[in-house]
Amino acid sequence: MEKLIWLVPGLPLLGAAVLLLGGRRTNAWGHLLGCLTALGSFALGAGLFFTMLGKSDAERSMHQHLYSWVPVPGTGQNPFQADVSFQLDQLSMVFVLLITGVGSLIHIYSIGYMSHDRERRKFFSYLNLFLAAMLILVLADNYLLLYVGWEGVGLASYLLIGFWQHKPSAAAAAKKAFVVNRVGDVGLSIAVMLMFVTFGSFSFDTVFGTAKGASDGTLTAIGIMLLLAACGKSAQFPLQTWLGDAMEGPTPVSALIHAATMVTAGVYLIVRSHAIFDLSPTARLLVTIVGAITLLFGAIVGCAKDDIKKGLAGSTMSQIGYMILAAGLGPIGYAFAIMHLVTHGFFKAGLFLGAGSVMHGMNDEVNMRHYGGLRKYMPITFGTFFLGYLAIIGCPPFSGFYSKDKIIEAAFSKGGTSGWILGGAALLGALITAFYMTRMVIMTFFGEKRWVEDADGHEPHPHESPSTMALPMLLLAVGSVGAGFLFNMNESFVKWLEPVVGPRAEGKLPGGLNSTTLSIITLAAVAVGVGFAYLKYGTRKVPAVAPRGSFITVAARKDLYGDAFNEAALMRPGQYLTRTLVYTDNRGVDGAINGLAALVGGTSGRLRRLQNGFVRSYALSMFGGAAALIAAILFAKL
Amino acid sequence: MNPENYLFLSALLFTIGAFGVLIRRNAIVVFMCVELMLNAVNLSLVTFSRMHGDLTGQVIAFFTMVVAAAEVVVGLAIIVSVFRTRRSASVDDANLLKY
Amino acid sequence: MAGSALGPHQAAVVLADGMGKTSTGEAVQFWVLGAVAVLGALGMVLSKKAVHSALSLAATMVCLAVFYLAQGAYFLGVVQIVVYTGAIMMLFLFVLMLVGVSSADSLVETIKGQRKLAVLAGVAFAVLIMTTLGHARLGSFAGSGAANAGGGNVKNLADLIFSKYFWAFEVTSALLITAAVGAMVLTHRERLVARKSQKELVEERVRTGKRMTPLPTPGVYARHNAVDIPALLPDGSPAEDSVNATLVARTPVRDAVGLTAVTRQAMAVPRQGEAPLVESTAGAANGDNE
Prior knowledge:
The structure holds three protein chains of three kinds. Chain A is mainly alpha-helical. Chain A has helices at residues 7-22, 30-53, 90-113, 120-139, 143-161, 168-199, 204-210, 216-233, 241-245, 251-260, 265-272, 274-278, 281-304, 308-328, 334-361, 379-393, 399-412, 416-445, 467-488, 492-501, 515-538, 551-557, 562-608, 615-637; strands at 62-72, 80-88. Chain A contains 24 helices and two strands. Chain A has a two-stranded antiparallel sheet with strand order 1-2. Chain B is an all-alpha fold. Chain B has helices at residues 4-23, 27-52, 56-86. The longest helix of chain B has 31 residues, at 56-86. Chains B and C meet through helix 1, helix 2 and helix 3 of B and helix 3, helix 4, helix 5, helix 6 and helix 7 of C. Chain A: This is NADH-quinone oxidoreductase subunit L. Chain A: It is a multi-pass membrane protein.
């Protein structure tokens, strides 16, 4: 079984290759092949999981060396050695199952969702490509191969966001995602280079094994660069701006890439590199700050959006903020970061699929103000969406309750003022989450119909989605309901991850709080959020056109001016700088060069006239020269 | 009379020859002017030979004559062939090699 | 001529006497022949016709030959006359015959500023080089006596050429051969078609039908019996092709066009007595032509 690890990313890669190289010939069965490779990958992952279960903790980490990618034998003290080899440990296992599992469901969902799209085959090839890259990312046993996967998912994300590139907004969103991700990628590449310089190797084992020997400054630098990478990929502050626009992609893409898997790669990176963060308190503090800011930022943005997918995107940002916060808290939070990641993968994917199902039934309408009363028309969608809703707001005993509650607890137990601040932020986040999710459910499924005709004048006829779409939603709903409880039973999830991230440190809650009281406080906050949303949207008529709202609402609608800030702080000065440079280059540098050339050219053009072809003129010059020579001699001798 | 006068005469003849080269267009006349210049130099060589009582100057003048003869033969042949193709013996007409 | 008139030995004695000065005879000879040489040189440069230039140059060269003899360079003096004035100048004249048809050379300058600058450069050069000569320290005056002692000028020269300068001499001979071959190559014209026989020429003349008879001879029925005067046809008009094309090309001689006018005038008044002067008309024609 261990020998088959390479097949896990290999199968989707093969699928992508066949579909992309096969072209139109594969149109008829392309989507089936795509699903098949994803399911095969999932089956392999499950098989590996059971193999792993059958071993003792210490033996669970499996390695597979495929080949030497860039071997540069023994020159200098740091021979460059990059291998393509995989490492499947408990952390990777969690990700493999999440990626292939959710990925398979979303593949199946896409069969129905994309059934009217002429490019469905291409869509599946990109999805397969994404799966392969993501699996390489989580299976890599060294940072260089991880980087390959990292860039691979970036590419797939770009291709899928811009899948409907005939829409200018989609093309622009794809470019934006790519460019912003690039900022993060630069961070990762710098981190990898620093690691090679410091440790002489890329491999996790060497880097983590020798991390203690490195200086604090280097470790902090590596940590900050890794954080930058995570910020880019996981849409964390200050690189958060691309995620909202990424919703231009087809909904399954939003569910798989921009909710369940790819955006959580940053969390994976930080947890995977815990050995470095454990040694650098500064980097870790930064991680928690970034997480806390983003979880509030995303939640506030989510409150103001009328576009259902953008609302969910804000929510995703916020939930990943929780994970990053947990990862930054250190040994008390690593396991919960990953646990929240998994449960979030279930319920957020389910919510997105639900949103996609609603759009499918409503002529691709995304504005929630034009929904309303859909509960009766789409019972399955409503049911699964509602379960996901309960999970995300942290209602016990749904999965979100277990994971998020633990994160809030861990934040408080950090101790000191920072503990209070972080815990308070997490608690406030929970309140806001409850508010905007309730708002979303009420506006979509309750109240009266506010449907409008679409651009072509068709009345919407909401209907339940086909079974290929319903089935994944149901399965994900099961996950959102039961995963948290399952993971928390006997702390099984924490224990599972213990060999990778180290034993969980027991935090001590400050100020006479204990686990139970904190849970009650959290639930109270959630109840306040729900109640407030109900008062605002459930008891009053929802206006079909968004009211102007307070300045916070206005700001939140504009993503809290993230784009405006980037434009003013980075784009404009950058443009100004490049224009100045171009001007300097054209006028200054080129001008000097061209001027010199013109001077030489013009002078020689005139001097050329001396070459008039008359021998006698040349003879005159010679004669004059001879006279001058004699004059010079005479002058010197006299 | 001071024998240096021969040298002055030589210089004068040389200058006249050079001047002729500059203002005449007929290739043959130009050639004659060149010959005059060579002769002027020969005169000074002979004068130097006499001044120093050394025959080397005369030997060089002798060689100059031989080379001048060879030069005249080839030069005139060139003039003839140029004349054949261009129907002109003017040095100004052969001015294609220019800017 | 004084130097050359005496024997070589005597000449050496005469010249050696002065030690820095030459004899009065030589001085007179220098001033007379020097003037001739300069005049010859100027004549060469300034005369319109190349033939005149050649003759002027020959005069200058003879003068120089005399100077060589006067200075004890007997061999060179003879060579100058035989080789230069004799062979080379004849070669010049020969080529002039070949080329000279159109060689009449107006002295009008065509390159802008050339003449002005040439005068300037020439004067500057002359002044400078003469000033230099005036300042030069030429050392003691040895005279040619020592050089010509022993076997005499020719033998001593031969000794030098065939010993010290033997290599240069051989190389020069190679140069001469090369020059001769080169001249042949340059002037040689490959005959591409066989020479036409008289028969073929006649047949060709008949075929083209342009002119069956030979060209008319010049001077027939003309006012002057000369080769450069075209014949008059029975109707009184001049036959332009009766004059050799080469002569026609030498414009100053007689102009068929100008002559036509004159002839018409003469024919119009046949018994008027004296015919108009050809010289004056020819002059007028020349004037028109220039």
